[in-house]
Amino acid sequence: MKKKGVADLFLLFLMLYLLLPIVATAFYAFATEWNRTVLPEGLTFKWLAILFQDVEFIQAFGRSVLLSGSAVVLAFFFVVPAIFVIVLYFPKYEKWMQTIVVLVYAFPGVILAVGLIRTYTKLGIPMILAVLGVYIISIFPYIYQGTRNSLRNVNAKQLLDAAELLGASKRQAFVRVLLPAIYPGLFVGALLSFSILFGEFVLINLVVGSRFETVQIYLMEKLSTSGHIASAVVFVYLVLMGILTLAISVLTKQSKGLVKS
Amino acid sequence: MFFVLPLVNMFLSSFTDSEGFTLNQYKTALFNSYILQGFKNSITLSAVSAIVALVVSLFAVYAMMRFTDPVKERILVMINLTSNFSGIPLAFAFIVLLGNSGLFTLLFEKWNIDALASFSLYSWSGLLLIYIYFQLPLSLMLLYPIYYGIQQQWKEAAALLGANTVQFWMKIGIPVMLPGIVGTFSVLFANAMGAYASAYALTGSDYNLAAIRIGTLLSGDIFAQPELASAIAVLLGATMISAMVLSEWSIKKTRRNL
Predict the structure, then answer these.
(1) What ipTM goes with this model?
(2) Of A206, A219, A120, A222, whose CA–CA distance to B3 is shortest?
(3) Rounded to an integer, what distance in angstroms lies between the CA atom of residue B24 and that of residue B28?
(4) B96 to chain A: which residues are within 8 Å by CB?
(5) Which of A14, A20, A237 minimises the CB distance to B89?
(6) Using a CB-CB distance cutoff of 8 angstroms, which residues of chain B are in contact with residue A8?
(7) What is the distance between the terminal CA atoms of chain B, rounded to a whole angstrom?
(8) DSSP state, residue B205
């Protein structure tokens, strides 16, 4: 019994360590003055209101959504079909996919940024497109894992064979049978990729800098000017991430239920 | 095209300067004590934060395992949420807590605990706290499935044969999990080596880390030296790859011993 108490206490401390910074920042976003006292002197919505009236922030937010969103959409148009084909019809090439996954993990943004700048500044294409390109690649592991797992879960190959045996064309089998079955899994991959890209700072800052101000860069600027506005930004960011995380966990549960039933 | 080409180009450019092929960039990188110190700092910070996160999560996952499935799931969702909390927002949150006029800093001042009140977030220990923070969710998520591999029957069998809990973990549990633990360590190590945003947001380019050096060499308006940055980037990449190869090798070795 005593041992159990120690373990619970340990877990509680861990959760505190993980949650305290989040809670404190959220508090700070609503605090009137909080420089000399331990607890905020009062609560206000002022900072959030100022933030949402700031055109710069709205634009930065739009840019972030646009950039991360289009990377995810493009990845789904070009990368997912390729994963389908390889997993379903050319399993022997899967080890190449695994290699790409490992490579993407092995090279962090700082290293890639160097390469990008060296390669694409001379070519004259807008650097933001180069960043977009790298974004598409950098979410590859998540999309690949998500797609492959859901294909495995539903026994995609047998499912397609069965549909074709029952008289469906290849296209019909794919669009009407396979896609609806793996849709939740794909959606989870997309949300996860989006949330990861939304938090990306290194590449965009080093390669494009303030010429394409995303939320992260906006936040970095506000860090040195106004703590309250910065915490309001973090708060908005956290709410967005919370929604995405919940959506992911609900969808994951759904897709698991789909397989069981 | 957006991945391999830049890497190859970077590799090539690390061997050049304005006059052509040279090894000078590496000579600078390897013999400049400032850059070397950056590497040393990066490696220590990554290794220490990875070990702390690993040990903490080993116990945490063990504690988690005794809960029912719905509770476990809720904890996992929470961990997932914190795993998105990294980079600049994370650095900011720690400034709110422990910065110059942070919540805890003020609290400790009030209680007259000078040792804690004078804690500087903008130093090695501050960075370590933040690094451990973003390592923890990742390490928990990676260790969780490994723990699942330990089956209840093994424990029962071991208990029947007269082993106590400690003996079970020393002789069976830990050895079975070891490859997974080593693998997790290398991922964590690489994760910290490549981290840039949190350290940058916290200390600007004041604290000497390899990743920060690359950033300043790239964006420095006066002293931009992309070739030198390339060389450091290649060395950083090499450090991470060797860490991964090393763990791969030790995994194979432990598997053979089993």
Answers:
(1) 0.70
(2) A120
(3) 6
(4) 21, 24-25, 28, 227, 231
(5) A237
(6) 63
(7) 43
(8) T
